[in-house]
TrEMBL record:
This is DNA 3'-5' helicase. Residues 8-286 form the UvrD-like helicase ATP-binding domain. It comes from the Bacteria. The gene is uvrD. The keyword RNA-binding does not apply. Its EC number is 5.6.2.4. InterPro entries: DExx_box_DNA_helicase_dom_sf, DNA_helicase_UvrD-like_C, DNA_helicase_UvrD/REP, P-loop_NTPase, UvrD-like_ATP-bd. Keywords: ATP-binding, DNA-binding, Helicase, Hydrolase, Isomerase, Nucleotide-binding. Belongs to the helicase family. UvrD subfamily. Residues 287-563 form the UvrD-like helicase C-terminal domain. The keyword RNA-binding does not apply. GO terms for molecular function: DNA helicase activity; hydrolase activity.
Length: 717
């Protein structure tokens, strides 16, 4: 192949980055400037130019999906396989390392990953054993404490507590929790990173092995790395390995999870021979979208500063829509998407972004109503559904009887007549002997510690797991799952629930068996299919792979939209307290992080951006009347256009209200009519909702813009 063809489709600065020979490369650039593209081309360039095996390359991406995409783009640039390259998220790579060297990492071969729910469950149990009052010492707080320590690389022994009660108690909980995880062979998310770091730090032989193997380390979205991830990168790249990182300080949105923008500055100081490249041309968005993003982020103080421009024209202005409430917001979005689809566009090219997961429910309702196919990305958490977790608990226990979290979940789901007392007894015995719940359960039966009835049902459960493993483990994975669902009587339990829900559960379980089918091949040579699948379930939770070929609208939180792009984007709920989030409004630093999130959201849009807010919203169980988000106000007026529903607006907008007839009599008024308000002056009547005393109308006033008013009090003429 002609190697230089890899440089096609890159601008000068991008080529410089792709071909840089320095040991350390830093590409610091704004959204849509081609950072990810540079990484992909750089990998291909290195392999082709230096005739290097992909085996010598390790690359870190933000999601598993991004990793798959990157690998296949590298392969298509090279025209050959790059499957021996290590590419994945920090968690995925750490997991891979720990699996390969479980013994050196002091983990059993069968170790399981704890998701954050399971983690909380284990912490709760530990705290109960320590007789800590849950009201005084909430488990969530302990969980936060533990994860924070791990993110910063600290073990209980490393924590200084000068007699401070909060720290010393939590430190003890951390220690007990760590012991419980050790017995169970359990590894939580933060532990994956810390353990993988310690593995290399403490094991010279392994460290040297990997340092020799990896000639190039590349990292996307570097601005969101935390301390332990940074330390891990430094270990791997300590000898001759070249390191390339790309990032954007304005898109750092995981400060709450310990990510540190400072790592970018540290990088420039701590590495020798750093070449810094800035990319300033944006290829993603229209001029209007880009200017809006630049204007919003300009309100942040602490920035490294960049200047983004585009060759393209301004395109359409940004549409701002004031909805009466969240239902109407959702109805508007659904109608707009339907129009777009009917004009010959694809659903998959549209995304609806929101600040908080809870917002998705109403949106889903209206998409369903309009029969618009959609996928929730990030928030869906297929592997976190109860029925899926129940089934997984059985599987985990079959494969690792030491997994206490799985034992706790499975032992009484479905209920098999084991009371809290019996279970407490099993826990107590486990504690005394420092063994797993599984072992202690056998022991409890042996020493007749339980009532005969409880003993019998416990025995039934233990046999189920034991025989299950013996009978199934040679079968294909999907069949194992199918048989587990049947033998555990889980399906029977769900079938007793009411209609819709039971059906959804059934479908999810069918999907679970289906998802497992992918693992029956030999794509994961170093892992057994079940191990690969269980790890996948933990690591890809929340990242359900929307089927690429399925044409559906993408719903996701602003956080999970990072790195992605869509021709048409809606950002719903642009309201003070929702976005910026209430919890972040009082601290300047947190507010700046919210603003970076707004910047991320706006810059996902390629051609068309809608910003929506509701004048009334049910939030946390209460009706609220939020103010318009400051992030909308920060966009210069000339870039925005308020979507109006008066007679001049384009027909498609009207479709949003097709159920409303412009001739309907609204207390003597009609849609589109000019009305007078004693305070706001004249405006156009746009919409109405409710009837009688509850009748509300939406009027677009010349003076104050769109408002919803109670007809009974509005004194319109
Ligand atoms: N030189 C170029 N010519 C044409 N298109 C380009 C060029 N560089 C990048 N692009 C396109 O611009 C878009 C944005 O690129 P990319 O996703 O790599 O940007 P990014 O800097 O990683 O953005 P983000 O900060 O959002 O992750 C992509 O569709 C990409 O294919
Ligand atoms: Mg990117």
């Amino acid at each position: 192949m002609d190697v230089t063809s890899i440089l096609d489709g890159l601008n000068k600065a991008q080529r410089d980055a792709v071909t840089a020979q320095n040991r350390a490369l830093l590409v610091l650039a704004g959204a849509g400037s081609g950072k990810t593209r540079v990484l992909v081309h750089r990998i291909a360039w290195i392999i082709a130019m230096q005739n290097l095996s992909p085996h010598s390359i390790i690359a870190v991406t933000f999601t598993n999906k991004a990793a798959h995409e990157m690998k296949s783009r590298v392969e298509s640039l090279l025209g050959r396989s790059a499957s021996s390259m290590w590419i994945g998220t920090f968690h995925g790579l750490a997991h891979r390392l720990l699996r390969a060297h479980a013994m050196d990492a002091e983990l059993p071969d069968t170790f399981q990953i704890l998701d954050s729910d399971d983690q909380l469950r284990v912490i709760k149990r530990v705290m109960k054993e320590m007789n800590l009052d849950e009201n005084e010492w909430p488990a969530k707080q302990a969980q936060w404490f533990i994860n924070k320590q791990k993110d910063d690389g600290r073990r209980p022994a490393d924590i200084q507590h000068y007699g401070d009660l909060f720290t010393s108690v939590h430190c003890n909980v951390y220690q007990q929790y760590q012991d419980a995880c050790k017995i169970g062979g359990l590894v939580d998310f933060a532990e994956l990173l810390l353990r993988a770091y310690e593995l290399l730090r403490d094991n010279q032989h392994l460290r040297e092995h990997y340092q020799q193997r990896f000639q190039h380390l590349l990292v996307d979205e570097f601005q969101d790395t935390n301390s332990i991830q940074y330390a891990w990168l430094k270990l791997i790249s300590a000898s001759d390995c070249a390191i390339s990182i790309v990032g954007d300080d304005d898109q750092s949105i995981y400060g709450w999870r310990g990510a540190q923008i400072e790592n970018i500055r540290r990088f420039a100081q701590e590495y020798d021979d750093v070449k810094t490249i800035r990319l300033e041309q944006n290829y993603r968005s229209t001029g209007a979208i880009l200017k809006a993003a630049n204007a919003v982020i300009a309100n942040n103080q602490d920035r490294m500063g960049k200047n983004l421009w585009t060759e393209g024209g301004d395109g359409e202005p940004i549409s701002v829509y004031a909805a009466f409430n969240e239902q109407e917001e959702a109805r508007f979005i659904a109608a707009r998407i339907k129009d777009w689809y009917e004009q010959g566009n694809s659903y998959r090219d549209c995304a609806i972004l929101y600040r908080s997961n809870a917002q998705s429910r109403v949106l889903e309702e209206f998409l369903l109503q309009k029969q618009i196919p959609y996928r929730i990305y990030g928030g869906f958490k297929f592997f976190e559904r109860a029925e899926v977790k129940d089934t997984m608990a059985y599987l985990r226990l079959m494969y690792n009887s030491q997994d206490d979290a799985a034992f706790e979940r499975a032992v009484n789901t479905p209920p098999r007549g084991l009371g809290q007392k019996s279970i407490e007894k099993i826990r107590e015995l486990a504690r005394e002997k420092s063994v797993s719940l599984w072992e202690s359960a056998w022991h409890a039966i042996e020493i007749k510690a339980l009532s005969p009835k409880a003993s019998k049902s416990l025995q039934g459960f233990l046999d189920l797991i034991k025989n299950g493993y013996e009978d199934f483990h040679d079968l294909p994975l999907s069949e194992q799952i199918q048989l587990t669902i049947e033998s555990s009587n889980l399906m029977e339990m769900y079938a007793k629930e009411k209609g819709e829900k039971a059906l959804a559960r059934k479908e999810n379980l069918a999907e679970l068996a289906g998802a497992a089918r992918e693992f029956d091949g030999d794509d994961y040579p170093d892992l057994s299919p079940m191990t690969a699948f269980l790890a996948h379930a933990s690591l890809e939770a929340g990242e359900t792979q929307a089927d690429q070929y399925e044409d559906c609208v993408q719903l996701m939180t602003l956080h999970s939209a990072k790195g992605l792009e869509f021709p048409m984007v809606f950002i719903a709920g642009m309201e003070e307290k929702l976005f910026p989030h209430m919890m972040s409004m009082d601290e300047p630093e947190k507010l700046e992080e919210e603003r970076r999130l707004a910047y991320v959201g706006i810059t996902r849009a390629m051609k068309k951006l809608f910003l929506l807010y509701a004048e009334k919203r049910r939030l946390w169980g209460k009706d609220t009347y939020p103010a318009i988000s400051r992030f909308i106000r920060e966009i210069p007026a000339e870039l925005k256009e308020e979507v109006r529903l008066n007679s001049q607006i384009s027909q498609p907008m009207f479709n949003a209200f097709e159920h409303k007839d412009t001739t309907t009599d609204i207390n003597g008024f009609k849609l589109g009519q000019i009305v007078e308000h004693p305070k706001y002056g004249s405006g156009v009547l746009l919409n109405f909702e409710g009837e009688g005393d509850q009748l509300r109308v939406q009027v677009n006033f010349e003076t104050v813009g769109t408002k919803w008013l109670m007809m009974a009090y509005a004194r319109l003429t």
